[in-house]
Every structure is written in structure tokens, then in C-alpha cells.
């Protein structure tokens, strides 16, 4: 009998051991395993060094201050020569107009637009000014470029200004008393 009892005991131990080992897998079902997929991040590509093409830039003549000084001294000398005497009531305007020239671009009501136009002209190297000197919203403000002693130079600048601002403008005699 002990032999028979031992066989049963060994059989029960084997079945319990198999149950302990494999029963949890059978009860949970098939586990889904997530495999992490790694992708390789590419290295930083080697960039070719590129250079922008060199452009030929026009040299802007900064002798504007000297020309203004010449125009003012020329106008002052004309004023001294042609001062009205007691018999004359007004100074001759023809002598003032021949000393310097200015390009009048137009008259504008919007002070913000006038200021932006003058800034754009000055950034491009043009000597721009307004009358009155401080634009007031709702009042007409005249925008000028110049003055310049040479009328021919203003004619050349007129085409450049027209391309920049789409304003043709009109060349007028510069009156220093007005500014």
C-alpha cells in the first residue's frame, strides 16, 4: 500500500506543480506584448556654405549739407545785395528763385502718411522736408525734396523718387523765407 499511496502523492504533487506553473498563463489568456520600435534619428546634414552674390551698390553723395549751405549763403548774399530801399516795397523774387531749386512731391492731409513718406525718402538718401515742419492731421502738409543748387540734379533725382514713391513731383524755385 505504501507504494500505491506514494504514487498518488507524487501524481498530486506533479499536477499541483504543473497547475501553479501553467494555470496563470491559461487564465490570463494570451498576453499582447508591445514591441517598441526605435527609429534612428538622422544626423544633422552637412550644409554647404553658400554666399549671396555681391551686388554693386551705388555710392550716395553725402554732400547735401554742403549744397544746402551753399544755397543758403547764395540766398543770403542775394538778400544783402537786393535789400529793398525805402522806395522799393518788396524784394525782387526773381533773384531768390534762381539761387536754389526744390522738388515738391505734393500736399497731404494725413500726418502719419507724411511722416512715413519723409522717413522713406530719407532712408534712401534724399534730403526731404515738410512745410509746416511738424505735420498736423487734417491740415495740408507739403512734402519737398531738396533744396539743390543744380536744377539738373533734381531732374535726375525726380525719376528715382518717382520709382520709389510713385509721385512725379514738380521742380520749383526754393524760397528760404518760406521754410
TrEMBL record:
Keyword list, A-Z: Membrane, Transmembrane, Transmembrane helix
Presence of the UniProt keyword Ribosomal protein in the record: no
Chain spans, region Disordered: 74-96
Residues annotated as domain SPOR: 95-174
Listed transmembrane segments: 6-23
Keyword DNA-binding carried by entry: no
Feature: compositional bias, Polar residues: 87-96
InterPro entries: Cell_div_SPOR-domain, SPOR-like_dom, SPOR-like_sf
Protein name: SPOR domain-containing protein
